[in-house]
């Protein structure tokens, strides 16, 4: 292995550790996300099937029912919830799961054993994939590909692990990389901000120390300058500079939707949406995409991220949430907005 490859591997290991630590922190804080908005599941099901009770998995497996898979490999298996669904619904008979976190792999394996499920788990880095399992009828990836930088390599390895006639099913964010949202998307979100009552725009869920930091930061004379003074930039370094950039853009009220500063991912999850906009293009170079299913998120993600808690209490919040989700669905169906979340079924081309 060349020294350059070794250095790249070391850098990836550091990023992987940072990513794991960040999401462990998020999980412990039990933060709400846009997917917690009232009516979200129904909204996605209507986009997938026009049936409020039929989700993207139902649609995908109905499309491949002529050659139903017996075995599956699940990428980025996390705590094992998807694999349990696949087995409990009878979509597959046996499943393998892989994740970058040894802790999550052990949790998933213990749960499968407790429930007497035919599921086996192993550790794998999807940027440098080694799949320790036999060839399978199906590979499924839900919400993990937008964290993968080496997509070309991963797709080739998926092709190798699939049996002849096998399928690749994906559910993921495929919108602009690093959440640098499109102009028409931002415009539509900001139109909704103008309509929403002010009490729905207060951000919730920030740690107390963030609020204090923001107040102190606002009192510093140069805090909102385009660039920090050179001596401070050099002293602070790249990571602190990224934190400053986050604080400059952050507010305790959602006044308007703007894309997050790319620098913020240096201090949160460096893998977040790293090449999300390339997923469909690169997948179509290796596989034949047979079905593309919109799943929304185009307005919901930029709008609801930090204000979702405001919509969970009382009927009025549910009505506002429903109006926004209905608008998102209608605009996607008309072709006026692209769907940032999609599911798709692919086959070896």
From TrEMBL:
SUPFAM superfamilies: S-adenosyl-L-methionine-dependent methyltransferases
Domain of life the protein comes from: Bacteria
GO terms of biological process kind: methylation
Top-level EC class: transferase
Keywords: Methyltransferase, Transferase
Residue ranges of every copy of the Methyltransferase type domain listed in the record: 73-170
EC number(s) stated in the UniProt entry for this protein: 2.1.1.-
Any Pfam family matching the protein: Methyltransf_11
Methyltransferase is among the record's keywords: yes
Molecular function GO terms recorded: S-adenosylmethionine-dependent methyltransferase activity
Annotated PANTHER family: TRANS-ACONITATE 2-METHYLTRANSFERASE-RELATED
Protein known as: Methyltransferase
Species: Candidatus Criblamydia sequanensis CRIB-18
